[in-house]
Amino acid sequence: MRIDENITVRKIAGEYLVLQPGLEMLDMAKVYTLSESAALILNNFKGIEFNREDALQVLLQHYQVGSDQAKDDLDRIINQFIAEGMIQE
Fold first, then answer.
1. Is the model more confident about 26 or about 85?
2. Quick check: helix, strand or coil at residue 9?
């Protein structure tokens, strides 16, 4: 899978925001707030091919959680990214 290269992640006032430019109109955009885990995935894999195992290893290296919890969190993150068009599988 691959993250849309047009999105931008910013940390503003302690919140992670992702800006996704609109496809139809240049002046339209979508803005989302992200969890720290979701921002970590976007920042680590933007512009490169990766799979769920790659992303899982990043989460396990950064957080003190069990593998099952990390997998559940990752599935929610990836599924939401796919639904919003941020990731192509």
1. 85
2. strand
